[in-house]
Amino acid sequence: MSLMGAFYVGVSGINASQNALNATAHNISNIDTEGFTRQQVYQGNSIYLTIGRSANNLSQVGLGVNIDEVRYVRDYFLDKAYRNESGRSSYYSTSYEAIEEINTLFGELNGTAFQESLQNLKDAMTSLAISPTDSTLQSQVVTVAGQFLNRAQAVYEGLSEYQDNLNEQIKDQVEKINEYANKLAELNKQIVKVEAGNIENANDLRDARNLILDKLSAMGKIEYTENLLGYVNVKFEGVELVKETNVNTMEARVLDKDAKTGFYTVLWPSLGEELVYDLDNPVSALQNSDKGSLRALLDARGTRRGTYADFTETGFENVENSSVATIMMMFDRLCYGITSEINTLLTHDNTDKYGCDSIIQSALTTEEYNAVCDGRSNGTYDELFCVIDEDEINKDGTNVKYSICNLKINEELLAQPSRLNNGFIQEIDDASADNATAKALEKIFNSDFSVLTPDASTSLTFMGYYTGMVNSYAELGEMYKSVADALEVSVDSVESARQSVVGVSDSDELTKMIKYQNAYNASSRYFNVVNEMLENLLTQLT
Fold first, then answer.
1. Is 62 within 8 Å of 10 (Cβ atoms)?
2. What pLDDT sits at residue 183?
3. Closest C-alpha to 449, from 470, 466, 472
4. What's the pLDDT tens digit per position in 179-231?
5. Backbone angles phi, psi at 118, to 5 degrees
6. How far apart are CA 372 and CA 244, in angstroms?
7. Which residues contact 313 (CB under 8 A, 6 or more apart)?
8. I need a surface site. Which of 225, 405, 421, 521 has the fewest CB within 10 A?
9. Does the pLDDT value for residue 308 go beyond 60?
10. Could you tell me if 144 and 126 are in contact, meaning their C-beta atoms sit under 8 angstroms apart?
11. 365 in helix, strand or coil?
12. Of 528, 520, 526, whose CA–CA distance to 41 is shortest?
């Protein structure tokens, strides 16, 4: 080899070692950077010079080493497994958080705020049954009923506010997904531009793109492929979200039918306002639809405020797939049952105005029921719970004017509690006390009210219904928690395996740095020796 060729060997060694040191330093400086993938330097032979030929072989001399590639190391299958498990984990953890919020509103199961108000109302009716004409006890009933109503309305309004909170989270997530989609399209453009000459890999840009795919996978079900040019195309819930540098954005829009609640519907504007999710179709692990926090938020919120009118003999109409709307419906049904049965007994309304006569008749014997309804004269029989807005309806037109938040305590009874059931005096010849109504008011709290769900066989009292309702959500929360915990373990396991491939080890990188530094020093000394030889040769010639 000529001395000039030897220079090439030394210079190539210096350059290769310097580039390897740069890559190692880059790894160490990004050891805590989210989504960063460690980069590896691949070295290869430089060109060869042919200095001679024989019959079968060429006599060649190499000119050193080149950096063939600085490659980032990822495992496609681990990435896919992580994103799949992350989507499912996010769905169940978000669903569990919704149940936890519901339990908090009901006193975290250990509190007794609403349960005490229900028990106090029952106790007030029990005391009244002992001495129904006692004006003090009548006043106590009106006062305790007001406390019960206030507490019930606070719980229902809290659930409504939580629905509104979920609604805003839905809008925020849609905006975030669109933001990620636009970033992906821009990254696609930059990556293809950098790698167009087939000289450099856009490793940091690819890391940023992979991090976005990780985050998108937690929000919904995604599918993605990288084409030969380097573009990543992404589908979200089966619809193209990103195609090369083009983005198909979603929209969270309040439709006309939801003007009253302000609930957002998530749709694809470019596809004729096609819905992103069919919320009438429940999620299923078998259908691989239990993925993403966006679907979990939509399922938790529901499409309406749940009311007693959504409880039918065939099921929970319109709210069965929503945890918050369902508990609102069950709670409103409980409050409607209590207020309507009390009103029916106090007003002696034989027209079944509230649709609860069958429940009252099942609680009372025929003689008791007749004693309440018969023998009345022209007394003043006011409702205890009055409707605020007679035109209160659901978005589908169902009249729900007796929903808990549309009730108030009769102002005339607040001003004069002795008007309650005409002072419990039967205005007949002997002016006797109306013990029958007082006893009936007490008895409805100890009698069966309703089954918890249409497919249940056991009928429960008011207190039993409330306890069963709260316990059912505690059990649902435990189910979500157990699934979320199991999936979190799975996600952590996959992430651990993934980090063993892509993660940066400071000890490994420092070892490499020492190796490349020594190689750099060796190449430098080699270069100096060749330089001295050449200088000595030139000196001798002159």
1. no
2. 95
3. 466
4. 999 999 999 999 999 888 777 788 889 889 999 999 999 999 999 998 988 89
5. -70, -45
6. 76
7. 454
8. 225
9. yes
10. no
11. coil
12. 520
pTM for the model: 0.85
Closest CA to 27 of 471, 506, 486: 506
* Cα-only R_g, the chain: 38
What is the average per-residue pLDDT within 265-278? 91
Look at residue 378 and tell me whether its pLDDT is greater than 60.
no
What SS3 class is residue 357?
helix
| Spatial contact of 273 and 254, defined as CB atoms under 8 Å apart | no
Kindly state the tokens that stand for 1: 């080899």
H or E stretch at 271? none
Tokens representing 80 are 């896919």
Tokens of 458: 């056991």
How far apart are alpha carbons 11 and 108 in whole angstroms? 71
Tally Cβ neighbours within 10 Å of residue 110: 6
At 24, which amino acid appears?
A: T
| Cβ–Cβ under 8 Å, residues 43 and 69 | no
Please tell me the distance from the alpha carbon of residue 307 to that of residue 398, in angstroms, as a whole number: 10
Q: Which two tokens stand for residue 516?
A: 């490349």
Mean pLDDT for the stretch of residues 490-501? 87
